[in-house]
Design goal:
The protein is an alpha+beta fold and 72 residues long. The protein is built from two helices and two strands. A two-stranded antiparallel ribbon has the order 1-2. Strand 1 and strand 2 form a beta hairpin. The radius of gyration is 21 Å and the shape is rod-shaped.
């Protein structure tokens, strides 16, 4: 990948991260009760919070790379 395509990817990722705070959601199953033949599980949904600052940094870095790559 050349510098220009990396810059475009950074701009796209920056826009996505800046607009959405919790990007990744996943579910886990935990055993609540395990007593002989009785098994009770609970399903929990987790969200990985991405701060908007991370998106802003990626967006600014991508724009800076695009501006820097356009100069001869």
């Amino acid at each position: 990948m050349n510098g220009r395509s990396i810059a475009v990817v950074l701009v796209i990722v920056g826009i996505i991260l800046f607009s959405y705070e919790g990007v990744v959601k996943y579910r886990t199953r935990d055993t609540v009760i395990d007593a002989g033949p009785l098994h009770v599980t609970a399903e929990k949904t987790h969200t990985i919070d991405v701060p908007p600052v991370a998106g802003a940094v990626a967006l600014i870095a991508g724009v800076a790379m695009l501006i820097g790559s356009s100069k001869p």
